[in-house]
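Protocol step 4 of 6: structure prediction from sequence.
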Amino acid sequence: MRRVRLLPRLTAVAVALLCGVALAAGCSAEAPKRLTAPGSFARDVDLTGQTYVVGSKEFDEQLLLCRMTIALLQSAGANVVDRCDTQGSDTVRSALTTGAIDMYWEYTGTAWRIYLRQEGQLTDPDELFTAVRDADAANGVTWLRQTPFDDTYAIGVQAANADRLGVRTISDLARLARSGSPDATMCIDQEFTGREDGLVGLLRTYGFQFPPGALTTTGLDDIYPAVAAVRPCTFGEVFATDGRLNAMRINTLTDDMGYFLPYHAALTVRSDVLARNPRLALLSERLAPMLTEPVMRELNARVSVGKRSPDEVARTFLREQGLTG
């Protein structure tokens, strides 16, 4: 027969009285339900009662990273203010450094060129991460563990056109443009035209210009179908982990002169925020190693090709990995 341990009478009465007082005051007898069920992350990190403001840029990958971060924080008991889907890299970075947000995922190459304004061409991912982390500490920004995936800029071309034109590298594209070929057309977004690590530096490094009228400025999401359809451009600015590359049979050209820096993602947190709870760093320690290039491409594809919401994809992935319940 199973033994049942009973509370002493006095203790039971005291508990009943306390519960009655709590209910009379409008309190719940149960702990507040968490917006995300706890998993392995919440077993080691308790953020109950804390509030964090999480931001991101506007494209699919950033939205996924932002939603993952929100779900993990919620699973550990934190309240979260959602600032995902902010337009423009400079806007999100400024929000972090001015205290409008507490954290967001940034890319090492972007920080090195754009925010820290460094000219050095660091091609080793770990060396670049260390340089960025150390330099940004002076700005009150802490870089947590970087991901294995590298979402570097790339030049995309439909696979059949790459074969037809014999273009495999960016040097091949430069040769094609210098020849005056009508196929030397390229779609880019507005930000790429003005970035230090964008179009101007690319053309300077490879020593060529596109013919007049050969560049089309459009939205990022419009570039992939434009390249796949070869209308209005044969080539386009793409990102190495975008899920549409495989689905639309778009190849990326080899950056044979090493122009594009590594762009590994890492959660950047205001240093004063992290100082208040250093265990917050475990979020990145647990999540970042899981985000390899194949994994990130697949997750991005579920959004861009499968038309699932970033929030659904992010939460499903976290549950699959046991990070949340």
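Step 5 (inspection) to follow. The two ends are 34 Å apart (CA to CA).
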